[in-house]
Amino acid sequence: MGRMLPPGSHGAASLAPGDWVDCGHVTVTPEMIDAFAALTGDRFEIHMSDTAARAHGFDARVAHGLLVLSLIDGLKNQAPAQFKARASMGWDWRFRRPVIAGDRLSARLEIEEIAPARAPDQAQLTLRFSVTNQAGDPVQTGSNRLLAYR
User: Fold this and answer.
1) What is the distance in angstroms between the CA of the first residue and the CA of the last residue of the chain?
2) Of 11, 16, 37, 97, which shows the fewest CB atoms inside 10 Å?
3) What is the pLDDT of residue 134?
4) Can you tell me the distance from the alpha carbon of 97 to that of 16, in angstroms, rounded to the nearest whole number?
5) What is the rounded distance in angstroms from the CA atom of residue 37 to the CA atom of residue 41?
6) For 69-95, what is each residue's pLDDT tens digit?
7) Mean pLDDT computed over 111-134
8) Residue 80: what pLDDT?
9) Cα separation values, 25 from 46, 79, 143, Å
10) Percent of the chain scored above 90 by pLDDT?
11) What is the 3-state secondary structure (H, E, C) of the chain?
């Protein structure tokens, strides 16, 4: 098992697989869902109305899966421990359970792999994410490939 990374900026050369970061938490609000729908044009009814969501078997309005992913990326970028990142190279992500308006989400990332990059001063980090709700249920999981400076 790796170590919890301390606050600060971490280059790839100081990291090891298994190192991890507690990214904190965020509560998903109806206003966030509304703003995401306005920005993206995704107004599927389960996102816009408790009544419609219940008609589809949900307890209340469901947050867009991509809204949740965006919030998690934001938590990563506000965490006390940061990576000396250059660019995101992609996501592999799963929506495991619905996120309902009012859910409090927590995110943790673990460094799964560190691989060489084309430039000798950089490395490719594979970050594995676990996102849970207030009950500790996993709601989203996946990985992000991040190009980082050594």
Assistant:
1) 22
2) 16
3) 98
4) 30
5) 5
6) 999 999 999 999 999 999 999 999 999
7) 98
8) 97
9) 24, 10, 18
10) 99
11) CCCECCCEEECHHHCCCCCEEEEEEEECCHHHHHHHHHHHCCCCHHHHCHHHHHHCCCCCCECCHHHHHHHHHHHHHHCCEEECEEEEEEEEEEECCCCECCCEEEEEEEEEEEEECCCCCEEEEEEEEEEECCCCCEEEEEEEEEEEEC
Q: What is the pLDDT of residues 44-68, one digit of tens each?
A: 999 999 999 999 999 999 999 999 9
Domains and CATH numbers, the chain: 8-27+64-149 (3.10.129.10)
Residue 144 has pLDDT above 80, yes or no: yes
Residues 53 and 59: their CA atoms lie apart, in Å, by: 7
